[in-house]
Amino acid sequence: MAKQNPKKDVVVIGLGWTGAILSMELAQEGLEILAPECGDDRNTVSDFQYPDIIDELKYGIRYKLMQKPSKFTLTVRRSMDEIARPYRHLGSFLPSDGVGSAGVHWNGQNWRPQKVEYRLRSYVEETFGADVIPEGMTIQDWSITYEEQEPYFDQFEKVAGISGKVGNLNGEIIESGNPFEAPRSSEYPLPPLPHTYDAELFRQAAKAKGLHPFPRPAGNASKAYTPMACSSNPAISAASASGSVASTIPSPHRRPAFWTR
Amino acid sequence: MTPSRRLTPRPQDEALTALEAGKVGLPPQLRDFFYFLLQNTKEGYFADPKYGGNHGMQAWVHIGFPGAHGSYAEWVNNYNADYPLSPVSISGERA
């Protein structure tokens, strides 16, 4: 006989970036949440603690944090003539599983859109003339503006612990940051990652040419960082030999009104 | 196939070359045997000693890889400096 569980207010399927952040906000509103998650439960300690987490064979080569192609895979073909065959070994992209999902292993760059991207059709028409857009090309303006979204970019950067340097603070251009970016309402929550030698040589060469090199907005914690909703582990980014990894696990499931299975 | 450790180096090389070239006549389910043999050999040689290879971290000493130290953050912008510490394994052994 099917087991009947008491009803909850909300069911959230999967505890990755989206599900976990959504759940955190709903839990803060006092709602009871049930979150089915097919992968493993994970905690910053002990799942991400030194030294086990820097096991390069286990994580970097065998992809312990990623979905297993033996359980679930997809097929790929490079032309219409080829037979689509299943991926047996992940490579160019790494779908992850378990609590935290992509948030536990991403080493992303967290760019904001340029203001002009919100009104791309208008921009193209104004700059190049309306007749350059062929009939049937679906280029459009968005119905929202950068200014409306800015507070949410700001909030997400603080949840995710983005490392960078502001280049446009409320319209004021800051030399060492990205002078081309849309205005930001605040500095990044973490300072930029230090330059490796090759990056420093590139910076100097670009600077000497009169260009504007700036550190990228990195999804890697440059320092220890614990936002309200998350636990983040910079030791991982510092210690990984094969490439840096920042770990952010939104943790609504540490709250009492929360069930995961 | 004869276990390769019973062979002298030259027949060993010939056997491996034949395997790599697909000339051994393996059944279809063993098509990727050579690929896995090569991959696992590299992994055994270069992975942490907890996996049973890289005895005494000698592979890491040989290539100058420092292993599982807790942090390299302070070395990121210490350009062109030699790293002074010897390799350490996940279990904490030093080479």
Summarize the entry for a quick read.
The complex is a heterodimer of chains A (261) and B (95). Chain A is built from seven helices and nine strands.
Task: Outline the fold blueprint.
The complex is a heterodimer of chains A (261) and B (95).
Chain A: E1 10-11, H1 17-28, E2 33-35, H2 44-47, H3 56-61, E3 75-76, E4 85-86, H4 120-128, H5 146-160, E5 168-169, E6 172-173, H6 197-208, E7 230-232, H7 234-239, E8 248-250, E9 258-260
Parallel strand pairs in A: 1-2, 2-9
Antiparallel strand pairs in A: 3-4, 5-6, 7-8
Chain B: H1 9-20, H2 33-46, H3 58-63
Give the oligomeric state of the chains in this entry, treating copies of one chain as homo and distinct chains as hetero. Answer: heterodimer
* Record field, number of beta strands of chain B: 0
The biggest sheet of chain B, with number of strands, parallel, antiparallel or mixed sense and barrel status, is: none
Number of helices of chain A: 7
Strand order of the largest sheet of chain A: 1-2-9
Molecular shape of chain A: globular
Report the span from N to C terminus of chain B: 37 Å
Largest sheet of chain A, if any? Answer: 3 strands, parallel
Estimate percent helicity of chain A.
10-25%
What is the overall silhouette of chain B? Answer: elongated
What is the H-and-E element order of chain A?
Answer: EHEHHEEHHEEHEHEE
Q: CA-to-CA gap between the ends of chain A? A: 19 Å
Overall pLDDT level of chain B: 91
Radius of gyration of chain A: 22 Å
Mean pLDDT of chain A, to the nearest integer, reads 84
Number of strands of chain A: 9
Measured by DSSP, the beta-strand proportion of chain B falls in: under 5%
Helix-strand topology string of chain B: HHH
